[in-house]
Design a protein that fits this description.
four-stranded antiparallel β-sheet, five-stranded mixed β-sheet, about 180 residues, Rieske Iron-sulfur Protein, 2 domains, about 35% strand, 13 strands, alpha+beta
C-alpha cells in the first residue's frame, strides 16, 4: 500500500493527508480576501462580493421534463426544492443548476454575504455562475439546458450537463438576457 492510501493510515478519510494543500488554499483565500478588502476600500466591489437576492418558488408550469419559470427581473437565485433546481440570473445571464453539490449530492446553499454557493457537508464553493472555486468537488455545479421563451425561462430537467464530462454542453447551458 502506498503512504497516500487512507487504509494504510488506519482511517477512511481520503483527505487526512491534505494539510499542505489546505494550507496553500487558506493562504490564497486570505490573500484574495485582502485584495477584495482593498478594492472595497477603493470603492470597487468585485462581482463575486455582491449579494444576490434569494427566493424560494416552484416552477410556474411543468410539462414532462420541462419546467417553466418567470424571467427574473434582477440578479438573484430562485430555489425550486420540488424540482431540485436553482435558477440564477447573474450579469444578464440565466442559468439553471441542480440543487445538489456534484461531489456527494448534498443540497447547496447560497451565502449572499460572501457571494457564492457552498456545500454544507464538505464546504465546496462555487461562483454565482456555477464555476468551481474550491473544496472537495472537482467540477462546477451541474447545469440544466435552458432556453428563453419571451418572458419565461424553460429548463429541460432531462438534460443535465456535468462540466468535466461535457464541457461544451455545460458552457452552452445558459441564456443571455440582454
Amino acid at each position: 500500500m502506498s503512504p497516500n492510501d487512507s487504509t494504510s493510515r488506519g482511517t477512511s478519510d481520503a483527505c487526512t493527508g491534505c494539510a499542505p494543500l489546505h494550507a496553500r488554499r487558506e493562504f490564497l483565500r486570505t490573500l484574495a480576501a485582502s485584495a477584495a478588502g482593498a478594492l472595497l476600500t477603493l470603492g470597487a466591489a468585485p462581482a463575486a462580493a455582491r449579494a444576490l437576492d434569494t427566493r424560494f418558488a416552484g416552477a410556474s408550469e411543468r410539462r414532462g421534463n420541462e419546467a417553466t419559470y418567470p424571467l427574473p427581473d434582477v440578479d438573484g437565485a430562485t430555489i425550486d426544492a420540488d424540482n431540485e433546481v436553482i435558477l440564477v440570473r447573474y450579469h444578464n445571464t440565466a442559468y439553471a443548476f441542480a440543487l445538489s453539490c456534484p461531489h456527494q449530492n448534498t443540497g447547496l446553499k447560497w451565502l449572499g454575504d460572501e457571494g457564492h454557493f457552498q456545500c454544507p457537508k464538505h464546504k465546496s464553493r462555487y461562483q454565482a455562475d456555477g464555476v468551481f472555486i474550491e473544496g472537495r468537488a472537482t467540477r462546477g455545479m451541474d447545469r440544466y439546458a435552458v432556453r428563453r421563451d419571451g418572458t419565461k425561462i424553460l429548463v429541460d430537467l432531462g438534460k443535465l450537463f456535468e462540466q468535466d464530462k461535457d464541457g461544451a454542453g455545460w458552457s452552452a447551458a445558459q441564456v443571455a438576457l440582454s
